[in-house]
Model the fold of this input.
Amino acid sequence: MRLALGGAALIAVLIAVLAINTMRYSPQATAETDTFVLGADLEQATDLLSRAVRFQTVSTELDRPDFADFLGFLETTYPQVHATMERSILTARTPLYTWEGRNPALQPVLLAAHYDVVPVAEDSLDQWVQDPFGGAVSDGFVWGRGTLDDKGALIAILSAAEHLIGTGFQPERTIYLSFGGDEEVGGTGAMAVARHLTEKGVRLAWALDEGSFVLDQVVPGLEQPVASINLAEKGYVTLTLVAKGAGGHSSMPPRMTAVGRIARAVDRLQNAPVPGGLSGVSETFFDALGRHFTLQERVVFANRWLLNPVLENILSSSPSTDAMLRSTIAPTMLSGSAKDNVLATEATATINFRLHPRDSIDDIIAHVTRAVDDDQVQVVIDRDTASAASPVSSSTAQGYLDIDSSIRAAFGPLAVVPGLTIAATDARHYATAADNTYRIAPFKITNDDLARFHGINERLSIENLQNGINFYGALIRRQ
Done:
């Protein structure tokens, strides 16, 4: 009887602790932000984005005249920007604008976007509602390749700047504008910008580029929109597993062929995920995000001291959230014999990894070697395309706070959290010249929009374009 009473008391105490922690686990208080409307000409901005789409600045065809023509288009359509700011054209036709501030003692900042776009697959053309390079304005959207990624942001930045200059505004600190010409194929333009600034002795307080959005009904279980201002982005490395074989006729195969050895190696690797978990920037993201869920979900987030294994298991079950917890392993290409009845003398598997900030390139190589556990499988690294994860920026620095306030001013009440970009952007290059680098495009997207990135029927709503202009206007006015 006494034991039963003791057990009941412990359960009651546990329930009380869980309940108290959950009630205390709520969003951090933020100062109210008034709605901001810049007053820029939305009809004109819509027309300019429509015209911008018509330049086929396809990243796989960097020698197209459209790239130079696009820069000429910007010069013509934003006359006050070009009369006020110095412009330098760097590698990959990447323009860098310098908007001199009134106080040279203040650290400058940089706003970035890119104007190159991914190709449109020929076999998808009949599935496009509008011509992908037509720039149609229809049903409240501007349609076409690059509207979301990333000409929409570029037009929003320049439209905000053009309007502000027209009102006589000059920022306190110098603002740089950088528009990459080859982000989709590596970002040599952004590298050149960072190198140029460093050689001039310029150290940015912060840089802002693409990398996330205002997510509306995208996060399961989260009702309100959430803006993820990403503090870092994952690294990138591709490894090739190579196995040799004697070759010969397929009628007399050995017990283990080169193809079989590679298949076994890939299987072993996929069954040995890189260790991950809620730490560092991943912990920061989910701790901030978890506070905005309903009471039932918050119980788990608020009581990680007890339920952390449960939470990590839940997050690991979805590819999108699992990618936030660890470096990911993605076998993407296989090769063997050129003929069905010939044994391969060499078989290969190409594996792409996106590196969490906690892991180095050497950590990944060591993990692969341990997981494959076969000295007859060679691990070859492509160091020319490899890049480490970016540094993790501060979520308490003034730059982050300015971006946070500007997002709220443009979009109204929403959750704002610091996050991690799981793909690659030009921001990783700008990070070499900045104390902090942040990643968010000021557009609200839904699940319906996710497939449009690099996909079919890419489009940007006119309402989003207005919100983007208001965001950049609010952010620039804070500098």
Remarks:
- Residues 81 and 162 are 6 Å apart (CA to CA).
- The mean pLDDT is 94.
- The radius of gyration is 25 Å.
